[in-house]
């Protein structure tokens, strides 16, 4: 019934022809106004409304409380609410539960992989989570899966950017902040009241390069630090191990970490390929052998599939035929 980006919005109370959404937005769109967009769904005769927030925008996520209070269900891959200030997150979740409104966010971690739903299923069936550990970044998975001694670290980062794997500024990936947000989301699903500032992050951006003005300057200077990364890789290889950049939720220690770890080549983390994600759940039920979810954790198609799956789940919960 409506579609909006950062500049324009298009609304039609009879519904949109989704095969022409871009054309409709470009030719018939008016200036974007999130309050007017929200009001469009209020005066309709339909029993249920769902807003799908496909942004990574904090201002949009601040609308969730209002949307839920107006009876609008939410589906989103936006990490800002679930990894933002705990008080705001708690306020949204409490209102959502009290209002019997659905708020689904499977794609906030691992794109289309069933990570949130797997974790929630374990918790709801009485399992006790001990640790959740994972390669949560498709970008950093690709970089370290390729870092095998054939090319310097800086060259792999440059090639990853050229292939479209990284953010426009690779420091946004290498800083570990995106992984930290996912760690916070999973920690809260486990019952921990962690803030983003509580996460111990090992940044892969050398300190002298953190303040550089542009991505180009960063990539130009990064080769000066190849020796340090190569030394870590060689030390690991000498012990029959590989380097992987992982996020960890340690429930017993009540903490979250993002760090570069070494794994033996027989370990599942060492056997990743491409830009795959891998998440291992160690629980009282899966203590000796962790429960593992693995697959592509980045990309528009798999993320869209995760979002669409949540939309179908909303429909199912509201009484659609199974």
UniProtKB/TrEMBL annotation:
Top EC group: oxidoreductase
Task: Give the binding site residues for NADPH.
Answer: 55, 79
Q: Which cofactor does it need?
A: a metal cation
Origin: domain of life: Eukaryota
Q: Which residues form the active site?
A: 182 (proton donor)
The answer to whether the entry has keyword Metal-binding is yes
Q: Which reaction does it catalyse?
A: L-aspartate + ATP = 4-phospho-L-aspartate + ADP; L-homoserine + NADP(+) = L-aspartate 4-semialdehyde + NADPH + H(+)
Which molecular function terms from Gene Ontology are attached?
Answer: aspartate kinase activity; ATP binding; homoserine dehydrogenase activity; metal ion binding; NADP binding
The UniProt record lists the Aspartate/homoserine dehydrogenase NAD-binding domain at 13-106
Q: Which InterPro entries match?
A: Asp/hSer_DH_NAD-bd (IPR005106), Bifunc_Aspkin/hSer_DH (IPR011147), HDH_cat (IPR001342), HDH_CS (IPR019811), HDH_short (IPR022697), NAD(P)-bd_dom_sf (IPR036291)
**Does this entry carry the keyword Ribosomal protein?**
no
EC number(s) given by UniProt: 1.1.1.3
Name one process (GO BP) from the record.
methionine biosynthetic process
What PANTHER family has UniProt attached to this entry?
Answer: HOMOSERINE DEHYDROGENASE, PTHR43070
User: What is the protein's given name?
Assistant: Homoserine dehydrogenase
Q: Which organism is it from?
A: Ceratodon purpureus
